Amino acid sequence: VQLQASGGGLVQAGGSLRLSCAAAGRTVITYTLGWFRQAPGKEREFVAAIVWSGSSTYGADSVKGRFTISRDNAKNTVCLQMNSLKPEDTAVYYCAARGGTSLYDQVKEYDYWGQGTLVTVSS
């Protein structure tokens, strides 16, 4: 599975961005999809995940109420809508995929990774 993330950019605090991740190579309809981020000098951390059906999602406490994960299985894509952005949201954002039916929130639990897209939030 090849994952391609896009949609990053520079935005002012309080603004919004929508990240997209397209999967290729095989369908990810039976995969859990997730978003992680890595700020400079910090470890990669979980942001949000969504099960194959889209019926269940899970987000980190730091983004709850601000970020929404969604997927379109017909298009083999997963999106992350980010609202009310803060400077501390600045990071490279990665999409990830793995087979299974649960919501996974650990880096080591994912098998496939995109190349990352940079989000910079200015104060």
Give the SSE map:
Elements: E1 2-6, E2 9-12, E3 17-24, E4 31-38, E5 45-50, E6 57-59, E7 67-72, E8 77-82, E9 91-99, E10 112-113, E11 117-122
Parallel strand pairs: 2-11
Antiparallel strand pairs: 1-3, 3-8, 4-5, 4-9, 5-6, 7-8, 9-10, 9-11
Share of β-strand residues? over 45%
Count of beta strands:
11
Mean pLDDT: 96
Helical run tally: 0
Shape: globular
Largest sheet: 7 strands, mixed
Cα distance, first to last residue?
37 Å
Keywords:
mainly beta; 0% helix; 123 residues; single chain; four-stranded antiparallel β-sheet; seven-stranded mixed β-sheet
TL;DR?
The chain is mostly beta strands and 123 residues long. The protein has strands spanning 2-6, 9-12, 17-24, 31-38, 45-50, 57-59, 67-72, 77-82, 91-99, 112-113, 117-122.
Give a verbal description of the structure.
This protein has 123 residues and is mainly beta. Helices cover 0% and strands 51% of the residues. It has no helices and 11 strands. The strands form 2 sheets. Strands 2, 4, 5, 6, 9, 10 and 11 form a 7-stranded mixed sheet that branches. The chain starts with a strand and ends with a strand. 34% of the residues are buried.
